[in-house]
Amino acid sequence: MNWSSVVGRRASGSAGAVNGSLAAGAGDDLETAPPPADEAANVAPVRDTVAAAAAAPLLSLKGVTKRFVTSRHDTTAIDDIDVEIRAGEFVCVVGPSGCGKSTLLNIVAGLDKATSGTITFDGKPLKGSSAERVVVFQDAALYPWLNVRANVEFGLKMKGIRGKERRKVADRYLELVNLTKFDKAFVHELSGGMKQRVQLARALAVEPRMLLMDEPFAALDAQTRDVLQAELQDIWLRTGATILFITHNVREAALLSDRVLVMTPGPGRIKAEINVPLQRPRDPDTHAVVDFAAEIRKQLQHDEYAVSKPEGGYVI
N or C: which terminus of the chain carries fewer CB neighbours within 10 A? Predict the structure, then answer.
């Protein structure tokens, strides 16, 4: 399947070259030609793309660089990152280990500061952490002395929401993640997947403007991961949440996202932006998702197995 028409081009740099290579040989009339009948069913309907493109970004990063400096080392984790995310978008970030994906997310969360560059959230400079941007971690950071309901209500309690309204909100999100029957259970009584559901419900309950998810399903078994991926798709469609999602799993990125950002090895830079126009809800085993994941993987393969040479090039 030819996905050249759905790979977004960046204005300059290596990302443009990569996206250009995917589109090579596509022909000048590709943009106006209708998709073949067997592919048309896999292409998502236009989702207010004109309005979305015209809307101001909810999150904007321009020239963001992060260096970690000690007495012995000066390491650049991410370099010259330009990213815009609009309200309601589901954006995945993929890249080799150590490329700075989690560093990028921590900066957006306000848990770390950029060395240089500008970051705005809803048009205002981003300063520190905020309930508007909530993180869902790989390891469920739950309070073991609280039961499921109390964990979900914790953020609401911190916001000063009174008991009756707090219980009402918690009920809604416990139902959303299919944990209503387990609201009195404690953390040690839950499976790994159930813990992640609790963490997700707690994050959604405070109604953040953006959900930041740092490989939340990476430690789960394949079956549980598939279930939670399907549930997250449903939650996103029902809530319209804005999500920035870090993952190593390229099929997960193809399955979940509207757009995939591909990063280079450290220092991490944005190598490519890939639009994902597949129909929702998506199934991880369909040809469309598998084929699209293969295109993302092609852009990672050289960097993932590259060995740095003294002159700064790469060899396999």
Answer: C
Does residue 102 register a pLDDT over 90?
Answer: yes
What is the third-level CATH fold of 4-23+38-132+209-307? Rossmann fold (3.40.50)
40 phi and psi angles, rounded to 5 deg: -60, -35
H-helix or E-strand spanning residue 192: helix 192-205
Q: Structural domain boundaries of the chain?
A: 4-23+38-132+209-307, 142-207
Task: Please state whether the peptide bond connecting residue 267 to the residue before it is cis, i.e. omega within 30 degrees of 0.
Answer: yes
Q: pLDDT higher for 316 or 168?
A: 168
**Residue 281 and residue 233 in contact, taking contact as beta carbons nearer than 8 Å:** yes
Beta-carbon contacts of 301 under 8 Å, excluding residues fewer than 6 positions away, are none
Tell me what pLDDT residue 76 has.
93
Q: How far is 63 from 23, CA to CA, in rounded Å?
A: 27
